[in-house]
Sequence to fold (246 residues):
Amino acid sequence: MDKDIRELKDCFNLSKNIVAFTGAGLSTESGIPTYRGRGGLWTKYDPMKYANINYFLKDATYYWEFFRDIRYKIIISAKPNKAHYFLVELEKQNKLKHVITQNIDGLHKIAGQKRVIELHGNTREIVCMDCNKTLTMDEAFTLLKNQLPPRCTHCKGILRPNTVFFGESLPQKELDKAISVSKKCDLFLVLGSSLVVSPASHLPQIAKENGSLLAIINIDSTPFDDVADIVIHDAASKVLSDLIEG
Ligand code: NAD
Ligand code: ZN
Fold:
């Protein structure tokens, strides 16, 4: 077994309160591309437009075309991968106390994870901007066959995904909870996040300042590699599989 994996395994054995922080890299093996890093991104649509609130308010059509032609198919066919299920197992053993995710794909919940903090919302939920009625992704996709952008079936308001766009604040309740659990953990485990988007850029620091170990598993380097206790540059699911098998 590699020295790094051995060290990570020792950390897991000693830890009683693990918090996992996950980013887009955790879902690449479920077929969902990242924004950054290798193999990143959809080419035809620009996340600085479809994931930007100012752009959405100006022209909701751009997002909904992207949803209809690209996102819906990717999300609807994505299944949780080994890494998601590893975290579910760790929660069942009561070692993992919370998953904080930046992902909007809902795959942690689909895998059966109970304690998930979705910092950026969930793209499978659609909400009316006027009356707050919620719809499923499938309902929105059906509406899109005749309408662009799709309208609320109750009040005809504009529909939006229940996600945090660039330019919007994070939901306060989720953020407070994420900060609180990061302060209490003894191992803060980063999986597949570039750690450049706020508050990802604060939580590892908060955990460390409160005495936690910090482990980062990411294909590429991150701005926190220098302060982390363990850094492994490899695919998250591979590292976690090595950990179980070792
Ligand atoms: P990011 O796209 O900024 O970074 C992902 C990181 O994962 C990169 O550094 C990349 O090198 C690494 N990576 C890629 N495949 C990996 C693998 N198999 N194992 C380990 N690492 C891997 O993602 P982020 O930090 O989550 O950033 C932010 C924003 O992107 C968030 O706002 C999030 O909502 C959004 N986003 C979400 C999804 C999703 O829900 N699946 C997908 C794309 C973007
Ligand atoms: Zn409505």
About this structure: The longest helix spans residues 60-77. The longest strand covers residues 121-128. The pocket of nicotinamide-adenine-dinucleotide (ligand 1) is lined by residues 23-25, 27-29, 32, 34-38, 102-105, 120, 192-194, 197, 200, 218-220, 235-236 (CB under 6 Å).
